[in-house]
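Handout, page 2. Input:
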Amino acid sequence: MNASLLPRVFRSTTTPAFWSQAAWTLLRVCIGVTIVHNGMNKLSDIPGFAEAYVKVIGLPFPIFFSYVAAYTELIGGPLLALGLLGRPAAFGLFGTMCVAMYHHILVAGFSIPYLELSAIYAACFLFFTVNGPGLFSVDALILKWLDANALSTKDKQIMQLERSSNLTAADKVTTTNK
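Output:
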C-alpha cells in the first residue's frame, strides 16, 4: 500500500473542540454497538432473512448476501465503535443500510415507519464515511504513530534546523527589546 495513502485512510476531518469530539465519539460508539444487534438477528435465521428480504429485492445468491449483510454489521459495528478503520467500516455499513432502505421502499413505498431506522443509520454511517471517526478513536492513534514514523531522517533534521533558527530569531528580538 502506498505510504502516502495510509495517513489519508486514518485521518479524520476534525473539529478541535473537545465537546464536539466527545459528542462525535458518543454517536460513533452508540451506532457501532447497536448495529451489532441487527447482524445477530440476521445470523439467527439466514434462510428466513434471505427469503424475506434479499430475494424480494432481486439480488442473486440470497444466502450469500445475507451472510455478507450479517457479517458487515457484526464486524463493521465494533470496528466503527472503536474507530478502527472507521471510514471503511462506515462505508460497508452505509451500503448495507442503502440496501435495507431499497427493500423498505419496494415493500412499503416511502412509508416513514419502515424507512426511519435504516435512514437514520445510513445518514450516520455516511457522516462517518465522509468525516472519519474523529479525534477520540484508534484511527487517530494510528495516524499519530504513522506521522511520527513517516518522516525521513532528513525531513526531521530540516524541521529541527527550522525550529532552532526560529528560536534564535526569537531570542534576538527579546534581547534587542531589553
